[in-house]
Every structure is written in C-alpha cells, then in structure tokens.
Design goal:
alpha/beta; Rossmann fold; six-stranded parallel beta sheet; 9 helices
Length: about 325
C-alpha cells in the first residue's frame, strides 16, 4: 500500500490531537483530520457499551461517512467507540490503530498503542515508553533555523524551560520551588528561555518575569506572538520540563538534549511513566545544578508505532494475497 487513505479522529483536545496527527503523518502523505464529539449523555458511556456510536455524534462536529479509509487512527477514550464502529461498518477493511488504553477489549481494534504502564495486554497491543507526537527531526531542524538568533543574548549554555500547570485532578503547588531552582541555575551563567503553556497560571508567569526582571539572559514568553516552543526544543542545550505533562516530556525526549523533570508525579500511572524513564537514564530530576549526562539518543515512539502499523498491514495484505 504505497499511498493509503488515512483518517485521524480526535475530539480536538491538544494532547490527543498531537499524538494522532504524529502517527497519521508518519503513515500517509495527506491524512484527513476529523474532529468529533459524542452527544450527552452518550459521552459518559464506556466505549465498549455504547450502542451505534456513529448515530450518537454531535451534529455540529465532523461526522464520519463512507467510503471508509484504508487506515483509521484514533486517540483517547472518547474516540475508541468511533474506531470500533468504523471497523464494523467497513467489515474489517479499515485498519484501526488506537492510541492509549481504550478501556475496551483490545480485540476490537487491529492495533492498540498503549503506554508502558497501562494494564491493557493482548497480541495486538504494543507498549511505548513515551507519548506519540509530531516533533520530527525535520521539524526541529526547520525550527532551529528560525529560532537560533532569537534566544537570550550571551555566551552561556541555554536551558529551555517548558511549563505545564494544574490538571483536572491536581493543582500546581510547587511554583516557588521551581522559581528558586531556576534562579540557582541562572547564577551559574546559564541563559533561560521559559515557555509557558495554555495551562500555566498567569500568576506563575508574572512571578517568573519578576524574578528575572531586567536580566537580558532570561526570556519569559508572554504567550503573545510566535510560539517559541518547538524552536526552544531545537536550540536549547538542556531542557527542563514540569512533571505534569507527559506530552511535553515525550516531545523533549525527541531531541538529543539532556532532559530534566521538575515536580512530583500526578498519580501512580504517571509515577510509573517517570520512573521508567529515570531508570533508563533518559531523564533526570531537576534541582538547579549541572545536568547529568543523558543515556541514549532521541526517543521516538511515533516511529516505532508507525512501523508496527506497517508490519501488521503487510502481514494482512500477504495473508489475503
């Protein structure tokens, strides 16, 4: 299959969208994005129990209709029911690849790509150490060309600081400790480029801006103008990421730079994610001192997932040929 038709379906949430888009773009030249939503109260029903999901979709969003694609990529619990429905409607002709634990039987998908700490198992389940994403070497190289001259002036090494924020289950209570650690890092001569996300509290951005006011060696993005996120991934000498974001940690690991994580894990599953990476030497815990050496090069779970899809598609084509 040289140029398969491919859809990737998400609810539009940024983390899910990035994962699905990354896998889709690794598999097809022109994937089609569909953003769907289930109508209430069906959006609260477990995917395995939802009757006729394609008839429960929000009419204000995309509505998948035939002809069905060769490959369907979905991500997150709320799109698992759509994947299963299209697989049935296509009579198995559409290869369905679902990212993350669907909280439904793995046998209802052609491939499930789950995190290493997820409990789901099966012959069609592969486990990856990091989240999928669309931060490719080509994208990093292009961003480096654009942002190399837009970093804080000076001769010291550059630390990119990537900030998350509170989640639905947990607040962000360590802002003061992070600020103090970054102040210690700056006293060593390291330049800082601090990049908040949409979840970062305004008060935290203001506090960091005040801590480094008048210091030309520190830039704190105010969330206006061009987003420097990918540029900082590309050009920083080390990356410091708050622990709340699996996606940002995974994207940082797509670079060759040392990656340090600040903050406690959100829950036991999150702790398993971080512990696995620490044990491998892929990340270290950030304290404001020199970065320990990183063991191994860039981690690209997206490429591994794409190869798993290709292998299974080739096996299926061979079996039917």
């Amino acid at each position: 299959m040289n140029d398969p038709s491919l859809w990737y379906v998400t609810t539009g949430e940024a983390g899910f969208r990035t994962q699905a888009r990354g896998l889709a773009q690794a598999l097809a030249a022109s994937p089609r994005e569909l953003v769907v939503g289930l109508r209430a109260p069906w959006d609260r029903v477990p995917a395995a129990w939802l009757p006729d999901p394609l008839r429960r979709l929000d009419p204000a969003r995309d509505r998948p209709t035939p002809p069905w694609p060769d490959i369907l990529v979905t991500c997150g619990r709320r799109t698992a029911a759509v994947s299963m429905a299209i697989r049935r409607a296509s009579r198995g002709a559409t290869f369905t690849a679902h990212i993350q634990d669907p909280l439904a039987p793995a046998s209802r998908f052609d491939l499930v790509i789950a995190m290493a700490h997820d409990p789901i198992e099966g012959p069609n389940v592969i486990k990856v150490a990091t989240a999928l994403h669309d931060v490719t070497p080509r994208r990093l190289a292009a961003a480096a060309d654009l942002w190399r001259a837009r970093t804080p002036p000076g001769d010291g090494p550059l630390a990119g600081v990537l900030l998350g924020g509170p989640t639905r289950r947990r607040g962000f209570a360590q802002a003061d400790a992070l600020r103090d650690a970054l102040v210690r890092l700056r006293t060593s001569g390291t330049r800082l480029y601090i990049v908040p996300s949409r979840r970062t509290p305004d008060a935290m951005i203001a506090d960091l801006g005040g801590a480094f006011a008048g210091d030309p060696g520190v830039l704190v993005w105010d969330r206006t103008g061009d987003n420097p996120y990918v540029g900082v991934l590309a050009v920083a000498d080390r990356l410091v990421v708050t622990s709340d974001s699996v996606s940002m940690i995974s994207e940082a690991l797509a670079t060759p730079h040392p990656v340090e994580v600040f903050g406690a894990p959100q829950n036991s599953r999150h702790a398993g994610f971080l512990d696995t990476l620490v044990a491998r030497g892929a990340i270290a815990l950030f304290s404001g001192g020199p970065p320990p050496p990183r063991i191994g090069g860039p981690v690209d779970a997206t490429a591994d997932a794409a190869q798993a899809v290709r292998t299974r598609l080739a096996a299926r084509t061979g079996a039917s040929g």
